[in-house]
Specification:
Elements lengths: L1 H11 L10 H11 L1 E5 L21 H4 L4 H5 L12 H10 L4 E7 L25 H11 L3 E7 L25 H15 L8 E5 L8 H14 L4 E2 L41 E5 L16 H13 L3 E6 L9 H17 L7 E2 L8 E8 L2 E8 L7 E5 L5 E6 L8 E5 L2 E5 L10 E7 L13 E3 L1
Parallel strand pairs: 1-2, 1-7, 2-3, 3-4, 4-5, 6-7
Antiparallel strand pairs: 8-9, 9-10, 10-15, 11-14, 11-16, 12-15, 13-14
Helix pairs in contact: 1-2, 5-6, 5-10, 7-8
């Protein structure tokens, strides 16, 4: 199912005139996907988190380890990823039930993983000598994944970027010109949206320093939309994001969706699109010593929680210097993929349920042919297999377990309380999904304490 959805999404991402594009049309494929892969890869993968005797660094290693610029530049002579296979990355994303892939074209260190005519600090000047983004774009489309670009506004390498890191006392700022840097940034973004075909998302970052303003963000947003009218742009293009919670202040916000980082909102945000970006372990970029990997159960329940609140999950992988995604991350994505092949219909194209979150699970919903599908995601299966659902008064037309469609489900409705009885153990040890089809639009009813309860 995920492949069909993704191929449809790829076809939806195409050039049309700006005045022919409605925001809802641009966002449709992204809302349908609900799940994407984040890839953090660059020169920082080479030291693998280790510098000067410490082993806890990640993609911020140049700033956090205070590496002089000439020493960091020297890493480019070692960028020769023997195992890099963009097709394998894209297949892994597709098999996991993801619909899009966001790849770091340039992180804060300023190194470009694409063929940029604006700088020599790019992949074409390394032993690899091949445009990584071209390979990624082609592989994504081949596998039904929408290619998307991450691009850092912050740049620790460019002579015109301000402010400098505090430890860089040897780099003069006397000739630095941030207006010139903005032109450089715009030129690189123009390359990214001109040379690789239709791109689904421009995912900006590093916008929080004082030199970046809302006006600059609006110019950059307008540039993206002029080059590719259907592209979606995150809110980090502007200067109004309220920290890691990810949502913009109304007065300064710009972009098309909010970006909570390493967290999920407690409540379902209304009237705003959003996407939580989360790591599988503790670092975005590869760190050889970081073995604190989230379990498949944690990742599945995270995906369900995000979808139940109307958001997307952007789950990160950090390939090593050879271009290989760590085995532990692959194993977890494969586990998520096995679950998605059975239960993906409860994630893709769903929206937040007006019934809300519950003591032993979550609910997603979807309109279907004039009726409403409710998907009850059960984390803790009751020993007696008896569920009481409060929160709606619609007639129940049908119900089934997605992982065991032949197992009978008994339904009894009494004055807004619907009791489901399903004999036997949970069909899935991590998240079991009950699909409920009810008549018409969902008619919420104020639930008792706990909302969805078990008896």
């Amino acid at each position: 199912m995920s492949l069909t959805i993704s191929l449809s999404a790829c076809r939806a991402v195409e050039h049309v005139a700006v005045n022919e594009v409605r925001s809802v049309d641009r966002m449709d494929w992204w809302r349908e996907a609900r799940f994407g892969m984040f890839v953090h890869w660059g020169l920082y993968a080479i030291p693998a988190g280790e510098w000067g005797g410490r082993t806890d660094y990640g993609e911020w290693i140049r700033a956090n380890a205070q590496i002089p610029i000439h020493e960091y530049e020297a890493l480019s002579s070692r960028f020769a990823p023997r195992a890099f296979d963009a097709d394998r990355w894209a297949r892994l994303a597709a098999d996991a039930g993801m619909g899009y892939m966001v790849v770091t074209t340039k992180h804060h260190d300023g190194f470009a993983l694409f063929d940029s005519k604006q700088t020599t600090f790019d992949v074409m000047s390394t032993p690899h000598g091949r445009d990584v983004m071209l390979d990624v774009a082609n592989a994504c489309r081949k596998n039904g994944i929408v290619p998307c670009w991450y691009h850092s506004i912050m740049d620790w390498h460019h002579d015109d970027y301000l402010p400098r890191r505090g430890f860089e006392v040897d780099r003069s700022i006397a000739e630095a010109d941030f207006e010139r840097y903005e032109r450089y940034l715009s030129a690189q973004v123009t390359e990214l949206l001109s040379n690789y075909g239709p791109i689904g998302v421009m995912w900006f970052d590093g916008e929080w320093e004082s030199t970046w303003t809302s006006a600059r963000g609006q110019r950059l947003y307008d540039l993206c939309r002029s080059l590719q009218p259907r592209v979606i742009v995150n809110n980090r293009v502007g200067a109004g994001r309220a920290g890691m919670s990810g949502f913009s202040n109304n007065s300064e916000g710009s972009g098309d969706f909010g970006t909570p980082e390493q967290q999920v909102p407690q409540l379902s945000p209304t009237a705003v699109d959003w996407e939580s970006c989360v790591t599988i372990n503790d670092n975005w970029g590869f760190n050889a010593k970081d073995t604190n990997f989230k379990s498949p159960r944690t990742l599945l329940r995270l995906l369900v929680d995000v979808a139940s609140k109307g958001g997307n999950l952007l789950l990160n992988v950090g390939p090593n210097a050879d271009g290989e995604i760590p085995r532990e991350e692959i194993e977890r994505l494969e586990a998520v993929g096995r679950w998605m092949r059975v239960n993906g219909s409860a994630i893709h194209g769903t929206s937040a349920s007006p019934i809300g979150a519950h003591a032993f699970g979550r609910i997603t919903c979807r309109r279907q042919d004039g009726n409403t599908q409710l998907f009850v995601h059960v984390f803790d299966w009751p020993a007696d297999g008896r569920f009481v659902v409060e929160g709606f008064v619609n007639e129940v037309l049908s119900t089934r377990l997605l992982a065991d469609r032949e197992r009978p489900v008994t339904v009894v409705c009494t004055r807004g309380r619907t009791t489901f009885t399903i004999q036997g153990p949970a069909p899935d040890p991590d998240v079991s999904v009950i699909e409920i089809l009810v008549s018409g639009d969902l008619i919420p009813r104020a639930p008792g304490p706990g909302g969805l309860i078990r008896r």
